[in-house]
Design the sequence.
């Protein structure tokens, strides 16, 4: 009996350890990726509050949606389409999670949802927990503009926003077209959403661009302030059209090059390149 009791205790401890390990991995994955756009029992952010989502949706649906939300949307699934429409048609990035990893994330959400074993201690999970806390910081839109355009370098050496993004702001040169235009991002995501995404990028291209180069809390606040200002004034901005400028610059450059080539050609034709040989032959006669 004692041996059986010891085996049961050991088995119980082993299973508890396995469950704790799974919980830890689910928490790690959630805070690395999901927390940029979602909270648990702390309200909507870029995406919906996930508290109790394990009760509202089947595991099969969650496995498909978390792995590739747009694939589910494209099937015409009414719930997926409604979510996509409700949250400003911002696509949730596809994830390379395994089914086991997704189940661990769901378990973490369930644990921290109201009534879950972890909810009493945490009260839920807030946006970007542990990454930054800049709600009290006053953003400087002027410095945010410089950080956005790269006129001021980011503290940890990350690339400037304008490398991939554009905004309709007459004070700023046209930006990149590799990613979404951010002119009205403040309206679409609100301050909390903008800060969460900048502080903990959920999109693969962004996360790969800033490995170990996270923005400082004040930088996040300043860029957010600049994006708010850009959103506020967008109706009064004409937007810079570089088409005519580039055309005229190209024509002027072509004229200059033609004049240079003409000068070189004229100099080469002042005499035959073999004139000195001809002259030497005449002297030898």
Sequence:
């Amino acid at each position: 009996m004692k041996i059986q009791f010891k085996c049961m205790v050991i088995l119980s401890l082993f299973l508890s350890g396995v469950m704790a390990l799974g919980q830890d991995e689910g928490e790690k994955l959630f805070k690395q990726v999901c927390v940029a756009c979602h909270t648990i029992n702390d309200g909507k952010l870029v995406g919906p509050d996930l508290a109790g989502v394990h009760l509202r949706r089947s595991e099969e649906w969650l496995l498909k949606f978390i792995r590739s939300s747009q694939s589910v949307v494209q099937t015409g699934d009414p719930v997926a389409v409604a979510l996509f429409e409700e949250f400003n048609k911002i696509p949730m990035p596809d994830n390379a999670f395994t089914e086991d990893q997704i189940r661990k994330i769901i378990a973490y959400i369930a644990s921290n949802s109201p009534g879950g074993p972890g909810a009493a201690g945490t009260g839920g999970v807030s946006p970007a927990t542990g990454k930054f806390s800049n709600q009290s910081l006053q953003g400087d839109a002027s410095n945010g503009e410089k950080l956005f355009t790269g006129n001021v370098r980011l503290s940890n050496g990350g690339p400037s926003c304008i490398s991939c993004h554009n905004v309709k702001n007459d004070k700023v040169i046209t930006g990149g077209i590799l990613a979404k235009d951010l002119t009205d991002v403040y309206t679409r995501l609100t301050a909390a959403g903008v800060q969460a995404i900048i502080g903990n990028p959920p999109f693969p291209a962004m996360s790969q661009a800033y490995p170990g180069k996270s923005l400082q809390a004040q930088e996040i606040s300043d860029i957010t302030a600049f994006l708010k200002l850009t959103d506020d004034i967008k109706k009064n901005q004409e937007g810079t059209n570089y088409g005519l400028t580039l055309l005229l610059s190209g024509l002027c450059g072509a004229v200059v090059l033609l004049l240079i080539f003409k000068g070189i050609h004229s100099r080469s034709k002042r005499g035959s390149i073999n004139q000195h040989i001809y002259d030497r032959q005449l002297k030898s006669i």
Summary: The chain has a mean pLDDT of 81. The chain has three domains: 2-122, 141-236, 246-284. The longest helix spans residues 2-32.
